[in-house]
Amino acid sequence: MSMLKRSNRCVWCRCFEQQLILALETKYATELTAVFCAGVYFVFDSERDGIKATYQHDDQSIHSSDCSSSDCSLSDHRPAWLDRGRIPALDGLRAIAVFLVCLAHVEETKGFPRVPFLPTLSRFGGLGVDVFFVLSGFLITNLLYREREKFGRVSLQSFYLRRGFRIIPAYICFLLFVAALAVAGIATPNARDWVAAGTFTMNFIHRPAWELGHIWSLSIEEHFYLVWPLVFAALSRRAAVAVLVGVLIVGPLIRCAVLIWWPMWSPMTDLWTFTRLDAIAAGCLLALLPRSPGGLRWINVAAKSWHLVVVVLIAGLAAGSASGKVSVAVTPTVTAIAIAILLWAAARRPPGWFENPVVVSIGAGSYSLYLWQQPFLNPHSDWSCAAFPQNLLFAGLIASLSYWLVERPMLRFKNRFQSQTVPVSVSPVSSQ
User: Fold this and answer.
1) Is there a contact between 303 and 29 (Cβ–Cβ < 8 Å)?
2) Which ranges of 89-155 does DSSP label H, i.e. alpha helix?
3) pLDDT of 32 strictly over 70
4) CA distance linking residue 391 with residue 214, whole number of Å
5) Cβ(136)–Cβ(373) under 8 Å?
6) CA nearest to 252, candidates 201, 160, 178, 320
7) CB 92 within 8 A of CB 117
8) pLDDT tens profile 353-399
9) How confident is the model at residue 418, as a pLDDT?
10) pLDDT-above-70 percentage for the chain
11) Distances, alpha carbon 410 to alpha carbons 90, 94, 264, 403, 416, in Å
């Protein structure tokens, strides 16, 4: 019976894929096929390997062991991990995101073999960054909400300490490494690049040095970490939701304005904080909507309709490939919302391979890997360490050392230091 069901799924996949490709321009067929197949595998694998979760509703814990269908994990009960504990699938999604980024870079490095379909898949490196943005918004907002629910307020001091110990030590080590490369004549950052790297304003720099260019995404996240806790702590949940919906609406409008009045700056809308915050806002909204029964039902319905979400994601990417105006104005927001819904579906019904120790390790070390891959996966460099395959080995090795020797010890130190500090807190306007 299970074999017949799986066979029917495969037939449905092929038929749906063929019809979708025929409906769109042929030159985008390969890209669409890659995205669609990834989405189908993502959900079908989760249906096969889905784990039964524990849910919390009205402060009473109930178990889903008596559920007879796979949809029980998308019931109207709030998942327990929303209020406490580890959130499933996050490390798996981080691993996918950093894989897409690394693939986009390594595919262009010297010595990399020409493999069919890899150039197409490597075009989705930007999609990996979008996943990181949505994940950051979701995780940070969920942690802030948990803290407010538990203590009645948000400790801004504790939050900034946590972020500082999490981000800054490894970042400083990375900058020192790039400085050493610059002294050796391998890296080429100028004074402008160093100022931007030191102030997290790289996303406002046009064509920075390759070795520091990827800091644009970290800059956006740092701006988010700086502002959002202040806004969240001062607002009720409903007011915060209204603000986030406003960001999702205003973001495309700002990009449209740039297209109309300052078209020469439209490529920079991919980098500016105020034109990319809608991606992070989608993750923040995902953390707040399930806190109300109506929001939980809405997001569960959307997650159950994952196939429609995949179609919307494909359509948005295809439209962006066909039109630069759509790519700037519409595609980023559509992509972020689709990723947020798929994130919820994955967390409620996580694929079994997301819990594979290798995948979890890559996800846990994704920050270090994202940070350190840039100097080694450099398509413009003649440095022997930037040629394939040794570039992957060096990037993985240095990232692992950074994670185990810098990140992990600093996180432990952060926990000890935080327990000795007196928090400076801000109370919310109201709990709802």
Assistant:
1) no
2) 90-106, 118-122, 125-151
3) no
4) 17
5) no
6) 320
7) no
8) 888 999 999 999 999 999 999 999 999 999 999 999 999 999 999 99
9) 57
10) 78
11) 21, 21, 43, 10, 10
